[in-house]
């Protein structure tokens, strides 16, 4: 345990310690930013996938609207063609009227069935869109939480680095005091006065366990 403390003390008092700490801080910062960038890319990819799903759903809605318009246009064209072809006699008109009723009924049934299917699809798509909106909200919330967590982590790292720098400054101050006491104890007596010298013992040195 004492050996570990001595190694730590030597590491902290090494002349290149400040540069090493700065390099460590830079490496931690880069790694932190890289991890956050990767997570942000993942969230962006998920958002892009949802945009694709929404675009596909919108295309299906447009296709349903187009198909509905085609059916209505077909009904109108067929009615106009039938009226033009059988307008010469009442009998033909009556027959054509019956025929048109049958055609209209058939197309109406087809249109009604299509509208039911379209309503069901629209309801399903509405549910999926609601789920996508909820997922989007959750992703945004996770994104905000990730940013807040990153900031707190960065502040914690900065605080720890500040403590290390303060610790180094305290060590340098204590070592300066010990060195000054040691040098003053070796000064020769002045003006003929006999001055006692005091050897520096291990008690005068800073205790590494208190650092």
3D structure, described in words:
The structure is a single chain. The protein is mainly alpha-helical. It has a domain at 46-184 and 198-205. 83% of the residues lie in helices and 0% in strands. The chain is built from three helices and no strands. The chain has helices at 2-12, 17-85, 90-185. α2 (17-85) packs antiparallel against α3. The radius of gyration is 43 Å and the shape is rod-shaped. The chain starts with a helix and ends in a 26-residue tail after the last helix.
Summarize the structure.
The chain contains three helices and no strands. The chain is an all-alpha fold and 211 residues long.
Give the count of helical stretches: 3
Overall morphology? rod-shaped
Whole-Å distance between the termini? 14 Å
Q: What is the residue-mean pLDDT, rounded to a whole number?
A: 74
What percentage of amino acids are in beta strands?
A: under 5%
Strand/helix succession: HHH
Helix content: over 70%
Give me the oligomer status.
single chain
Radius of gyration: 43 Å
What is the makeup of the main sheet? none
Care to count the β-strands?
0
Structure classification: mainly alpha
Poorly predicted residue ranges: 191-211
């Amino acid at each position: 345990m004492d050996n570990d403390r001595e190694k730590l003390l030597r590491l902290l008092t090494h002349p290149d310690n400040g540069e090493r700490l700065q390099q460590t801080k830079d490496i931690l910062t880069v790694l932190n930013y890289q991890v956050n960038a990767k997570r942000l890319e993942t969230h962006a990819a998920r958002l892009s996938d949802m945009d694709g799903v929404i675009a596909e759903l919108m295309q299906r809605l447009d296709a349903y609207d187009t198909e509905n318009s085609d059916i209505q246009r077909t009904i109108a064209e067929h009615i106009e063609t039938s009226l033009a072809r059988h307008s010469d006699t009442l009998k033909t008109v009556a027959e054509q009227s019956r025929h048109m009723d049958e055609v209209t009924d058939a197309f109406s049934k087809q249109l009604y069935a299509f509208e039911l299917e379209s309503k069901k699809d629209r309801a399903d798509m509405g549910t999926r869109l609601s789920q996508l909106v909820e997922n989007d909200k959750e992703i945004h919330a996770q994104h905000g939480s990730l940013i807040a967590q990153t900031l707190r982590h960065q502040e914690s790292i900065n605080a720890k680095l500040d403590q290390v720098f303060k610790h180094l400054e305290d060590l340098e101050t204590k070592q300066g005091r010990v060195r000054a006491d040691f040098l003053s104890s070796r000064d020769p007596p002045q003006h003929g006065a006999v001055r006692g010298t005091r050897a520096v013992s291990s008690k005068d040195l800073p205790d590494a366990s208190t650092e």
